C-alpha cells in the first residue's frame, strides 16, 4: 500500500502545481483587493475549488499512474496465462467476491526485488491490485493470501475515496496558505518585481506546504491500515493475516541493512521517520489482530 499512497501524493502535488500555474497565467481566480490586499473569503473559495479539483483529478489518474510509473503488467484472465499468474488472478477475484465487490479488480505484476503489493483506483469498480515479483518469490501461499486479502480490504473499504476527500481538505489549506505567504513575500520586494516573485513564491510554498500536509495524509493512512488488517483477517482468516505480517517481519529483519528495501505493508523501523510513515509498527498490528 505504501506505493499507492506515495504515487497518489506525488500525482496530487504535480496536479495542484500545474493547475495553479495555468490559472495564474490565465488570470483566473483574482482574490486581490483594489488596495493590493487579499479578500480572504474569495481566496478560501478559490482554494477549495482548486484543492478538491486537484485531489479528484489525482484519484481519477491513480490507476493509470500506477501502471505507468511501476511498469505493471496487467494479467488478462481471458488470455493465456501461466499457472502461477492464473492462480494470482483467481485468488484476487475470489477475495473480491467475498468482500462484496461487484466488478473484479485488475490484477497485475511488476518487476521488483522488493516485497511489495498495493491496491489503487478511483472506485471499487475501477481498481487495481498489483504485486511485485519479489513478493511472489519470497512469500509462501498463506502469506500471499493474507497480503492479497489486505489489499482487497482497502478497495472494499473505499480507502482511496476517503483519502481523496482528506487530500482535498489538505489541498485547500495548502493553496490558501501558499498564496498568503507568497503575497507577504511579494510585498517586501520592488514593485516591478512583485508579480514574478509572487508567481514563483506560490509554486515554492505550494510544494513545501504540500509536503508538510502529507503528514496528515500519512497519519490517516496509518489509521486505515488497522481496518485493512481486520478486513484481511475476515477475508483470508486471522491466522493467514498474522502469518503475512510475521513473514514481513522476518523479511524486514533479513534486509534491515538495505535502506532501499521496504516491505509490502511499509515496514520502516526508523523512529525519526514515524511522521512520514504510511503504516504503523508491525508489532502493534500483529498484537491488535491477536487480541481480536
TrEMBL record:
Give the active-site positions.
151
Annotated Zn(2+) binding sites: 150, 154, 225
The cofactor note reads:
Binds 1 zinc ion per subunit.
One GO term of the cellular component aspect? plasma membrane
Which membrane topology term applies here?
Answer: Multi-pass membrane protein
The molecular function terms of the Gene Ontology recorded here are: metalloendopeptidase activity; zinc ion binding
Q: Transmembrane among the record's keywords?
A: yes
Q: Which cofactor does it need?
A: Zn(2+)
The record's subcellular location field reads: Cell membrane
Peptidase M48 domain sequence ranges: 84-291
EC number(s) on file: 3.4.24.-
Q: Does the keyword Protease apply?
A: yes
Which superkingdom is the protein from? Bacteria
Signal peptide extent: none
What Pfam family does this protein match (any one)? Peptidase_M48
- Matching InterPro entries, A to Z? HtpX_protease, Pept_M48_protease_HtpX, Peptidase_M48
Task: Write out the entry's keywords from A to Z.
Answer: Cell membrane, Hydrolase, Membrane, Metal-binding, Metalloprotease, Protease, Transmembrane, Transmembrane helix, Zinc
Q: Name one GO biological process term.
A: proteolysis
Bilayer-crossing residues are 7-28, 40-60, 165-184, 196-220
- Family membership: Belongs to the peptidase M48B family.
Name of the protein in its database record = Protease HtpX homolog
Source organism (scientific name): Metabacillus lacus
Taxonomy, top ranks, is:
Bacteria, Bacillati, Bacillota, Bacilli, Bacillales
This protein's gene is called: htpX
Amino acid at each position: 500500500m505504501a506505493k499507492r499512497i506515495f504515487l497518489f501524493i506525488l500525482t496530487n502535488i504535480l496536479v495542484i502545481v500545474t493547475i495553479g500555474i495555468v490559472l495564474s497565467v490565465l488570470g483566473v481566480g483574482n482574490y486581490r483587493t483594489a488596495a493590493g490586499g487579499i479578500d480572504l473569503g474569495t481566496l478560501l473559495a478559490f482554494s477549495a475549488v482548486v484543492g478538491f479539483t486537484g485531489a479528484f483529478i489525482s484519484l481519477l489518474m491513480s490507476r493509470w499512474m500506477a501502471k505507468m510509473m511501476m511498469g505493471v503488467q496487467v494479467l488478462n484472465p481471458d488470455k493465456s496465462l501461466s499457472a502461477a499468474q492464473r492462480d494470482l488472478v483467481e485468488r484476487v477475484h475470489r477475495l473480491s467476491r467475498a468482500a462484496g465487490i461487484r466488478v473484479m479488480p485488475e490484477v497485475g505484476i511488476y518487476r521488483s526485488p522488493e516485497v511489495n503489493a498495493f491496491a489503487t483506483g478511483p472506485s471499487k469498480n475501477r481498481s487495481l491490485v498489483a504485486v511485485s515479483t519479489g513478493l511472489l518469490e519470497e512469500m509462501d501461499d498463506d502469506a500471499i493470501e493474507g497480503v492479497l486479502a489486505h489489499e482487497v480490504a482497502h478497495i472494499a473499504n473505499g480507502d482511496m475515496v476517503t483519502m481523496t476527500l482528506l487530500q482535498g481538505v489538505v489541498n485547500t489549506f495548502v493553496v490558501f496558505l501558499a498564496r498568503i505567504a507568497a503575497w507577504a513575500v511579494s510585498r517586501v520586494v520592488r514593485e516591478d518585481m512583485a508579480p514574478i516573485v509572487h508567481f514563483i513564491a506560490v509554486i515554492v510554498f505550494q510544494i513545501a506546504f504540500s509536503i508538510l500536509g502529507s503528514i496528515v495524509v500519512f497519519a490517516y493512512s496509518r489509521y486505515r491500515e488497522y481496518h485493512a488488517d481486520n478486513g484481511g483477517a475476515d477475508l483470508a482468516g486471522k491466522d493467514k493475516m498474522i502469518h503475512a505480517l510475521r513473514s514481513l517481519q522476518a523479511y524486514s529483519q533479513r534486509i534491515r541493512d538495505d535502506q532501499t528495501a521496504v516491505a509490502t505493508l511499509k515496514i520502516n523501523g526508523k523512529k525519526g521517520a514515524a511522521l512520514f510513515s504510511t503504516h504503523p509498527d508491525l508489532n502493534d498490528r500483529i498484537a491488535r489482530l491477536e487480541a481480536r
